[in-house]
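User: I'm writing a short report section on ligand binding and want a predicted complex to refer to. Could you take this sequence and flavin-adenine dinucleotide and write out the structure as tokens? A short remark afterwards would be nice.
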Amino acid sequence: MPEKIAIIGGGIAGLTAGYLLNDRYDVSLFEKDKRLGGNVYTLDTKTGEEIDISVFFWSPLLYPNFAKLLKKIGIDTKATKLTEGLSESFRNMNTKRDYYLSCDLTKPRSTFSLKNFKSVIYQMLVLWNYAKMIRIYKAGRLDGLSMRQAIEFCPALKGDLLKLAFFPICIMTSMLWDELMDAPAEFIVAKIKKLGSPLKFISWRLYPCKTRVYVDKLAAPFKDKINLNAAIKSVTRNGNSVVLKMDDDTEKKFDKVIFACPADTALGLLSDPSVDETRLLSPWRYNDGLVIIHTDKSNYPAEDLWSMYSYLYTDDDGNINTSINAHYRFQNGVPDDSNYIGCQHPNIDIDKDKIEFQKVFRTPVYDCDSFATIAELPSLNGKTNTYYCGSHFGYGLHEDAVTSAINVAKLLGAEWP
Ligand SMILES: Cc1cc2nc3c(=O)[nH]c(=O)nc-3n(C[C@H](O)[C@H](O)[C@H](O)COP(=O)(O)OP(=O)(O)OC[C@H]3O[C@@H](n4cnc5c(N)ncnc54)[C@H](O)[C@@H]3O)c2cc1C
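Assistant: Sure. The structure tokens for the complex follow:
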């Protein structure tokens, strides 16, 4: 009889672990939501469009394990659409000043257009300051500093330039401005270095298919063992077994458990956390970030200037606030005249009649305390029949979630790739 494994969480980490372990174990996956995917969400709109409203970027160069996983489940990554030069617009809602950064020559304000001179200069300055920050990081001078303190090494980074430099990092981390500024500079600058060098930058892609396609393919081999609307209430380890208490207070017994849910949830579920589990999981806080899908264009640049992302920001005496707004026209299969906008961390009035959907997505906050645990998190695996995975094992991205799940599966004897 194969051993029984419970997986808590049906995001990309839990699905990867389930997919890889299903051959060797009697796997049961428990997802509290009525759907699989966690932070991966494809929305069917009222107008019949299929829009990926959260996760939609990856890079074969920077996501090697995820690329291998896609290949394993038969998804042709060559079909991937390039991002056609990431384009962004920035609107200072206080001054009504707009900046446009785009390598798309067909756009009226491309990075190469004279009309856009100030934005172009700003873009150069941003890159120059990133490079300076990376040099300081490599010299070990950012150790122990917050991002707010590290910025003092780059006095040119102030006013709108500061925002142009760091709003894109809010996307890469799903963090709010103040969270980003309080984050360890080492973490943020390492992330800029890892993800943003010019060579790596051009490797960024849109997913080759709607994200729900790979969610469904990963789940297919063990779909009968997936339990939706199944929130776990507690987990108790008794010698050789693990007991999961369900929402309705019924109990199920397993040989092992994999926590593929947020770290704070995992710790809250454990009835008997060890000293190390408390030490390594308790520093993690999560951002409950609202994303609103709507068609209210009133706050945005003219449609011919729409980019992938628009940042609408305010700066009230240093109190900086931005929403991150995705325009979906560039996605595979989304019509060129799609009117949908996704507003993450909304800071604008949106006409209620034009709101079609909204959802809260939970993402890890990287502060000095949580960052300090990352190197040690894998050491929790295998103790008292318990394992952990999720995007918080790295930079908060798909590759991190997938790699941590592969590591757990390998520890449990699965073959990879
Ligand atoms: C708006 C947005 C855009 C993003 N864009 C990108 C992108 O383009 N590229 C990229 O690489 N990353 C992106 N990310 C980051 C993304 O979060 C990670 O890539 C990854 O999807 C996280 O996967 P995970 O499995 O670790 O966690 P999650 O997806 O959070 O999955 C955890 C699961 O556990 C479940 N759960 C929690 N508690 C319980 C319980 N008690 N019982 C049962 N189940 C439970 C949750 O419901 C959830 O389904 C984005 C995130 C957001 C929010």
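A remark for your report: The two ends are 25 Å apart (CA to CA). The chain has a mean pLDDT of 93.
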